[in-house]
Design brief:
Layout (H helix, E strand, L loop, with lengths): L1 E5 L4 H12 L3 E6 L11 E4 L7 H6 L6 E4 L5 H11 L4 E5 L29 H16 L3 E4 L20
Helix pairs in contact: 3-4
Length: 166
């Protein structure tokens, strides 16, 4: 399987890339190149997600089967990913509880009953909700979004719970 990890040098993306490599998959990371290299064995594709030409240029003839997106934080990044990667077999998007209009403070109820942001605000939560809608519409049934609360562990560069970088 050819897996593209959008992100892949830090935290969640690094773990996804490492796990896929350990299983023998062909892994590429699309990264800016400012936070270090991807795990050994992964292709390092470089570019800025906000540049509409960067992802197609970086991919060249290499086409992923699946995508794990750990880094969409802007509306431009979401639009460009949807345009270039809409035909993949599967796309897993790491979203956030902040995509819900009522979070924080919460609590969050059943997913179908919780509205997400639908404003033009250029903030983290509204941008995550926008990315879910835009990428999900383009990918279709192969789209999965995971609205995580707090994710912690090794390579957590924010040190949320005192976890050290290893």
């Amino acid at each position: 399987m050819r897996l593209l990890v959008l992100g892949g040098t830090q935290f969640l993306g690094r773990h996804v890339a490492s796990a896929a490599l350990a299983r023998g998959h062909d892994v590429a990371t699309f990264i800016r190149g400012v936070s270090g290299p991807p795990p050994a064995g992964a292709r390092a594709l470089h570019g800025d997600r906000d540049d509409p030409e960067a992802l197609p240029r970086a991919l060249g003839e290499w086409a992923p089967d699946l995508v794990v997106d750990t880094s969409a934080r802007t509306r431009a990044a979401a639009r460009h990913a949807a345009a270039v990667l809409g035909g993949v077999h599967g796309y897993a998007f790491a979203s956030s509880l902040n995509a819900y209009r009522g979070w924080p403070p919460g609590p969050v109820g059943p997913e179908d009953g919780e509205p997400t942001w639908d404003t033009e605000d250029d903030d983290y939560g509204p941008n995550k909700a926008f990315a879910e809608r835009v990428i999900g519409a383009r990918v279709g049934r192969g789209f999965l979004t995971a609205r995580a609360g707090l994710v912690v562990g090794p390579y957590d560069y924010v040190h949320r719970l005192g976890c050290e970088r290893t």
